[in-house]
Amino acid sequence: MNSHDTHPGGPDLAALAALLADGTRADFCLALLDGRAWTAIELARHAGVAASTATGHLNRLVGSGLLTQERQGRHRYVRLADPDTAELIEKLASMAPRRADPPRSLPAVNRSRALARARTCYDHLAGALGVAITEAMTDRGMLDWEQGLALTGDGTAWLAELGIVLPPATRRPPVRSCLDWTERRPHLAGAVGAALCRHAFDAGWITRIGTSRAVALTDAGKHALTDRLGPAAVET
């Protein structure tokens, strides 16, 4: 008797695993963690495959519900379906073994280091910077981990001082712990994590590095985070 007989109608975890077992599809999902919409041509160039090959892989990912698509004229754009999908990909990346062939060229090494220092994970901050901010907020009593991650009254007041207005309650939790794949420690996700990341961009605290999802902490960001969270928040 196979697993489909013993668990009729149950979730087909093997089908999901098979989707991500392909290196090209996995690379697409990792690239889309930047939260932006990409075209098939852009993803093909990123993964080093033919456009027709990319289209076939994207059709499978869209059909599975991992990606969503939208059309503008002749162009089709794809993105990760939702924050839950992004956090699933980030968590799987944190559990995956490191590649046996690490980057050797100087540009590749620099890109890898930049991603580890600070990057976006869909719509919130990750990397050493994201983890440092999360830990600084915890140390200052803005986040409580006692009975599952929660935003405290001090945390709510701190966000208000920054002018961050949280969106109305939705299915997405206000705060969520997302295991960082480079730091192997949690960074802040959820609606609060997204709002804080958006504020950091709008206030000029961080800026994107090229077209990757790596970000750089600006001088203004260093001063602002040091003033508001202490020096530990920028020690990356």
From TrEMBL:
InterPro entries: ArsR-like_HTH (IPR011991), HTH_ArsR_DNA-bd_dom (IPR001845), HTH_Metal-responsive_Reg (IPR052543), WH-like_DNA-bd_sf (IPR036388), WH_DNA-bd_sf (IPR036390). Residues 5-100 form the HTH arsR-type domain. PROSITE patterns: HTH_ARSR_2. Pfam families: HTH_20. One of its GO terms (molecular function) is lead ion binding. GO terms for biological process: response to cadmium ion; response to lead ion. PANTHER family: TRANSCRIPTIONAL REGULATOR-RELATED (PTHR39168), TRANSCRIPTIONAL REGULATORY PROTEIN (PTHR39168:SF1). This is Transcriptional regulator. It comes from Streptomyces violaceoruber.
